[in-house]
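Q: For a teaching handout, I want to show students what a protein-ligand complex looks like in token form. Below are the inputs, and the small molecule is 6-O-phosphono-beta-D-fructofuranose. Please produce the holo structure.
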Amino acid sequence: MKRIAVLTSGGDAPGMNAAIRSIVRTAIFHRLEVIGVKRGYCGLIEGDYAKMNLGSVSDVIHRGGTILGTARCRDFFNEEGRQTALLKMRQARIEGLIAIGGDGTFNGAAKLDNSGMPVIAVPGTIDNDIACTDRTIGFDTVINTVLDAINKIRDTATSHERIFVIEVMGRNSGAIALAAGLAGGAESILIPEIPLNLEQVVSNIKRGIARGKRHSIIVLAEGLANSLDITKQIEAMAQLETRLTILGYLQRGGTPTAQDRILASRMGAEAVYMLLRGERNKMVASKGDMITSVDIECALLQKKELNFQDYKLAGILSR
Ligand code: F6P
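A: Here is the structure, written as tokens, with 6-O-phosphono-beta-D-fructofuranose included.
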């Protein structure tokens, strides 16, 4: 193998740049040429490629977003789009691809690999909703971002003796809400994996007030329900002033934490080694402190388990 390509696709995540840097520098160290593909699979189809060198990834390790740009590319999900991409890659003498992203990216990666191009997937999404890996790049940063918001909201919640609902990202997953809620001491964590019980939420609030609490923080994952409706219902049931904060897209940005940079550096390098070893249709995965290789299918066919132990613990500790 002489020339490989790298792209980022789907929602961006802090640490993607650290992964790109690791891929480019590991590959060059092992005498591979690296092509950067712009705007995910859309750039792959259009042949929007640029050769990368050691300097292309200077000064990016601390930056959020992705220097390659990203997209959710509909055209790649039809056979014609993928065949065009394959042709363009062959014309550019690309022999393997590393795709950084979430489940949508992995779907495309598996299909491209099945059409004849070796592909290695790297899990990069703030959602941490990919099965067969403990962590995805960006998750540690987002929970710290949300935690910072919870701390700030707690100040005003205490001053005004108000209840706050904080909506966080996670289309189908409560992973961000659970981790940030546990770390932030939320009174209730509302996530799609657990049936909604507003009576319980209100009873947690009342119990807290009875023992002298002056605030109540409820962290809600966007995938559960309409957060404004939930906020109004809580206010009506508890008969207490309740406010909603939707954190939105600020959760996707920011400088990556040390943990995310380390994870991204390790995963990026391993993706290159996997291509060099002739592996294909695989995902780089983290298991504890180890980096391993698993079939992309594993990530695509299984649903990531929620940490129910943490959910139970958060309930006990917030009393
Ligand atoms: O990056 C993952 C994610 O942030 C989800 O939690 C969210 O629902 C989604 O992306 C929204 O992203 P977009 O508007 O870019 O499709």
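A: Two things your students might notice: The domain at 3-138+256-301 is CATH 3.40.50.450 (Rossmann fold). The chain has a mean pLDDT of 97.
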